[in-house]
Amino acid sequence: MRRRGFLGGALALGASPAAARTVMAEHQKPLPMLSPPITDGAGRSLTLADFRGRTVLLNIWATWCPPCRHEMPTLDRLQARLGGAEFHVLALSIDKGGFDAVRAFYAEIAITHLDLYLADQLRGMMAFGVVGLPTTLLVNPQGREVARKVGPAAWDSPAAISQIQRVITKG
Fold this sequence. Notes:
By secondary structure, this protein is of the alpha+beta class. The chain contains five helices and eight strands; from the N terminus they run αββββαβαβαββα. Strands 1-8-7-4-5-6-2-3 form an eight-stranded mixed sheet, with helices on both faces. Residues 1-19 have low confidence and may be disordered.
């Protein structure tokens, strides 16, 4: 009897709708973050503090990374759908080829909603604790990391949008 009850419970858990699942592993409490210098497409020097007040999906990527290249259109669609005063996708390239490589890649795959951001590869990876690309951090409006995912994801999926909207709503 107990076995059957356990198995039924396990099957029920596995049958949950996709939107109820989380794409990113959430932390029990928000974590403080460091920020390397970030340069935007206009040449301005920024840090994560410049994005306080908004929920940020910080994606660390490079044009030479196949999984990064594959997920970029989903990030572009996410920014088109949710981007605004409360939310921003910060696609942070760590390409040694600089903005020229990023601009060429954006043009190649028709990225139109993501802004250009660049950080030094070593400083960016160390500051954000990156162990593989892509790495994506969900940052709350107070500038603290609330969730993390190493590896690609479908960022415009119902599950990702649901998880992000929950953080936006919490503020």
